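#structure-requests
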Amino acid sequence: MQPSRPQAGWRYSSSGIVMTDPKNPIPQGDYIPAIRNGNLIYTSGMTPRREGVLILTGPVRTAAPLETYREAVTLACANALTAARSVLSDGEQIGAILSLTVYVAAEPGYTEHAKVADIASAYLRSALGAKGIGTRAAIGVATLPGNAPVEIQLVAAV
């Protein structure tokens, strides 16, 4: 199902979704980056990709400092926010982040998932102020697509 109107920065063709704005995340499969229903926006899970290429791979490790993952978590969150903004009409803005889900691919025994998610929360607060902070889940998983260390999904209100 395609959205009722083309999303800003994307167009649809017989071969699928075609990106027209290079700032938009590049889908890595048969899905759209974000969809809007009324005043709600749902994003697909976003990994730390720049121009379609992961900037960091492998699980989050207990022995590595949290700072090792800051750029990757921030980029994944920025990709999700960019996807959410791509379905806004002219003059609209994100009214609130309702839900932030942070999937962390971590080695067995890792217990600091919430601290990884704090990096995403901090990014959203810096980008949107208080309206960037909503509910949140930090979920540990064995693996993520492409061996990404983190994947972020947002639900936002307009």
